[in-house]
Batch of 2 targets.
Target 1
Amino acid sequence: MDVLWAPWRMDYILGPKPDSCVFCVPEHAGEDRERLILGRAATCYALMNKFPYNSGHIMICPYRHVSCPTELTAEESSECMAALTATVAILKEAFRPHGINAGLNLGEAAGAGIAAHLHFQIVPRWNGDNSFMAVFGQTHVIPELLLDTYDRIRPRFANAGPFRNI
């Protein structure tokens, strides 16, 4: 029998849950690598998912703590879409996926893990990436360490689309 180790998952399962919103980030960029923030725009930012569905799983979040797109200003809405578009272009170049899932879940009943703070999910996909592991073992195989992925794609966010060089 082969054993697949995913010890990073235990940190999430047993680890302390923050009292504050994980998507409400400080204005300074000093913690960006630790928080996996890839790029900052005026009203939103891009960050990697600490518990990804696939390598390159990125989210776009408005800085403002809102739970629905109807609460965004026109500027925030426009910039979130520009950030999503720039992120898709970066993922296509860096990962060469066969496809990309992009969207959002509004509310806990719709599958939002953190329903109180709006976040767009962008997940690169490859033909056959839902292998037997996901179907039978409810397990995802992520082939690259998070910080390796971060270091590889972070430079691509500097001045891409609405992101400013930080």
Note: The radius of gyration is 16 Å.
Target 2
Amino acid sequence: MHHELKALALTCTLKPSPAPSSSDLIASQVLGELRGHGVGGDSIRVVDFDVRPGVETDMGDGDQWPAIRARVLEADILLLSTPTWLGHPSSIAQRVLERLDAELSETDDEGRPSMYGKVAAVAVVGNEDGAHKIVADCFQALDDIGFTVPAQGCTYWNSEAMKPKDYNDLDEIPEAVAATNKALAANAAHLARVLKHDPYPPRK
């Protein structure tokens, strides 16, 4: 199938490859749904790279963020997938958002911030509560950076409170999660196409 759009999932698990990751699993499920809408894509497990702290596009000294950033710039849709730790997104997810903050001062030839025209979605998994707050925090940050959020642009799974269980260990995708993944993919692909063919107005 020809893929006219590209998606990139930044998986923000704390577990280096090849350890099984629930965040990686839900990201792959969303990418699978996106493929059904003509969107190609793959994922990057950010913890496998030496991403330095900072708010510049390149922190130097072996910083590997620039290679990831190049992939983000190529993508039409960014999926940020994070586990829940202590009710918050992972430290890796926070670092990704901090590094993306540098894009506020990067503009195209018409003065638009570099992430204008790109769609952002969020996936959250956890064996504790916190998904709604994590999505809210991530969406606000991504919107500030210049991404556009689609209707129902998030998916999540939380284990039952006080009964820890990993998404990775489920026998099948829960029906509600599968339906949410489908809606996220359909809306993100639609919005990405709209923005690709009718960009935001120039800022100059």
Note: The chain has five helices and six strands.
